[in-house]
From TrEMBL:
Record-linked Gene3D superfamilies: Farnesyl Diphosphate Synthase
Cited InterPro entries: Isoprenoid_synthase_dom_sf, Squ/phyt_synthse
Name recorded for this polypeptide: Squalene/phytoene synthase family protein
Originating organism: Paracoccus angustae
Pfam families, per database record: SQS_PSY
Length: 256
């Protein structure tokens, strides 16, 4: 897969991150696009087989290739790994953690409580944003702020997807409205902490820190009980997405 094909993959399947990439500096875009394309491939690997063991074997293949890249070994010619190697080289090694975190998806195990969801989001969306932000110049002293932003944005995205995750066995094992409210509260508080620390982060990191459109409004609606996360699929309109990305491009404001 060429970089152009990776770009098309992200454009179709991850439009919010794709839009944010366009805000990044031109020289940073290949690294972001290849990272996000890889994330899409890793996320769907557990669902390429209904047999948990076979699904985990597919996931392990990605882990092995990424770990090899971390040692300086170039991957075999591959649709995603080849452009990833060109942009990340040895720095692709730590990306293996994203695949490791998806092992539980292979077994279709629902979460017993909100705390399990928080840990999962930290290991998936959290690490993804952390890698992207570091690549865009986020300093070590801002890791806490990045982690908070990633947690808030990741939990909001997980709650939006819950109506589709629940039938797959990847949601919560009990459909208790209070669990959705609790997760929305954790997300809102994390985003607020990140906003208070925004001065620690350079403007060029905005593309990596973008949480997606209408996150604050969505979380507020969940907290008020206006949205049932288990059954209501809340869509973002094309206009809302364009308006949110235009705001990011014009102001650099990734915080809410």
């Amino acid at each position: 897969m060429t970089l152009a094909a990776c770009t098309e993959l992200v454009r179709i399947h991850d439009p919010d991150r794709f839009g944010a990439v366009l805000v990044a500096r031109v020289e940073d875009r290949p690294a972001l696009i290849t990272l996000y394309a890889l994330n899409l491939e890793i996320a769907r690997a557990p669902f390429q087989s209904a047999e948990p063991m076979l699904a985990e074997m597919r996931l392990q293949w990605w882990i092995d290739r990424l770990e090899d890249m971390g040692t300086g070994k170039a991957p075999p010619l591959h649709d995603v790994l080849t452009p990833l190697w060109e942009s990340w080289n040895r720095k692709a090694g730590p990306v293996a953690c994203l695949a490791e975190a998806r092992r539980r998806d292979c077994a279709r195990e629902p979460f017993a409580d909100p705390e399990g969801v928080v840990d999962y989001v930290k290991d998936t969306a959290g690490r993804l944003m952390g890698l992207a932000a570091e690549r865009l110049g986020a300093p070590a002293g801002a890791r806490g702020a990045v982690a908070d932003q990633a947690l808030g944005a990741g939990l909001a995205a997980w709650l939006r997807a819950l109506p589709r995750l629940q039938p797959l066995g990847l949601g919560l094992d009990r459909q208790r409205p209070e669990d959705g409210v609790a997760l929305a509260g954790i997300a809102r508080d994390a985003l607020r902490r990140a906003a208070r620390s925004r001065r620690l982060l350079p403007r060029q990191a905005a593309a990596a820190l973008y949480p997606g459109p209408r996150v604050r409004q969505f979380l507020d609606a969940v907290l008020k009980g206006d949205i049932d996360c288990f059954s209501q699929d809340v869509e973002v309109t094309p206009f809302q997405r364009r308006a949110s990305l235009a705001r990011l491009a014009l102001t650099g404001r990734w915080w809410r």
